[in-house]
Amino acid sequence: MNARVEPQLLTRLSNQHLDSLEEEAIFVLREVAAAFERPTLLFSGGKDSLVLLKCAEKAFGEGRIPYPLLMIDTGHNFHEVTGFRDFRAQELGAELIVRSVEDSMKRGTVRLAHPGESRNVHQSVTLLEAIEEFRFDALIGGARRDEEKARAKERIFSHRDSFGQWQPKAQRPELWTLFNTRIQPGEHFRVFPISNWTELDVWQYIEREHIALPSLYYAHQRQVVERKGLLVPVTDLTPARAGEQVETRTVRFRTVGDITCTCPVESPAVNAAQVVIETLSADVSERGATRMDDKTSEASMEKRKKDGYF
Asked: Which helix (H) or strand (E) holds 37?
């Protein structure tokens, strides 16, 4: 094969793959709009939710997304991400609903074991309260099967019972792209249009579609400490411990969540194309490489999902 032709062929094959994934996501987004009365799109301002939002724009047209955006805020999110979230929602003219774990704490429905405990797992309570408040019957999220073993068990249309719980052995079959969306009063669905995407697919799509992201996703200098094989950012919420050496390194975030459980990785990548190249050689999942809360069995994703987590 001619060496000058091969890159063009690879680009075409990549675009065909991304087109297929995009088509599936758009189909699912439209199916939700048709099948449910009160859906919402979970929108954190992170890369996966921004990809999902781009697909929603293509599904319905700019400024015509037929459901509100919902953010469950721990109060410990990166300001770069929440600021970008607000900017993007305003730019689209979309309704943005924000519900806070701090409000659940004031109501007494969330109680921390100690002031320094991560609030990430407690988002489940605030999310279920928002579902009850707005009577949402479908929540569209950006989770992918390649992220974590429990998420690999998830259906695209994932049924939740009246307590918001996920029962992995009671999920409905999804044959021939046919989805059973029937629910009883009080039940709802979590819907994952980009379930079949990988981290590489996401970054290739970001590059192709020129999707703007919060600056944290690209190389920047940050003070960190090494802890249990992770680079922990040094912040007011995650200070260095006695004996730890604070270093300034060039890092980026592969995934962005609560400050207390999200770690960066060393990287010189300053744009999506460079991140794609890095992702091609990554041998650890983004959650495995960057999430402190996924390191303990007590905080296992499957248990958290059964309790109502995203």
From this structure: none
